Amino acid sequence: MKPLPGKAKPEAPPATPAAISPPPVKIVPAPPPRPAPARPGPHPLGAPLDGSWDRQISRGRLTPDRIIDLHGHTLADAHARLAAAIHAGDGARVILVITGKGRPDRPARIRAELMHWLDRPDMRAAVASVRAAHPRHGGSGAFYLILRRAK
């Protein structure tokens, strides 16, 4: 069948703007909030002392009861000397430990290991605090060990 000449095929009515639906919006959930970075607590060996200790150290008035120079020793020998000095039980309260600063081509290995040694349970129980030494006693190449009082 042929279409009649005067009749055209009916066209679809033009779409109205209200009838056109917008493309679906993709909803992306917000990422969960990141927890605040945890601040590490103070190291037990850097525990606060009363103000008189820090004043004496900063003014260079602290006099060590014993001085241990670990220059030129092997790591094992230095560790043994440090342990013997801490556990000597002779009433010393402040020990000056000289580790050396090291050099760019030769870092100070004893200085790097000192905090690990002091963090061991047998030594941590005897040491109340560790402080950097005054420049008069070696500055950044030495440390004051403040021992706990004997009970």
Describe this structure in words.
The chain has 4 helices and 4 strands. It has helices spanning 51-59, 75-86, 109-118, 121-124; strands at residues 66-69, 94-98, 127-132, 142-147. A 4-stranded mixed beta sheet has the order 1-2-4-3, covered by helices on one side. α2 links the parallel β1 and β2. It starts with 50 loop residues before the first helix and ends with a strand. The model has no long low-confidence stretch (mean pLDDT 79).
Short description:
This protein is α+β, with helices and mostly antiparallel strands and 151 residues long.
| Rg, Cα atoms, Å | 37 Å
Oligomer: single chain
Shape: rod-shaped
Distance between the termini: 118 Å
What is the strand tally? 4
Biggest β-sheet strands, sense, barrel: 4 strands, mixed
Helix content: 10-25%
Count the DSSP helices.
Answer: 4
Decide which structural class fits the backbone: alpha+beta
Mean pLDDT level: 79
Widest sheet: strand order? 1-2-4-3
Low-pLDDT runs of 5+ residues are none
Q: List the helices and strands in order.
A: HEHEHHEE
- Beta-strand level of the residues, as a percent range? 5-15%
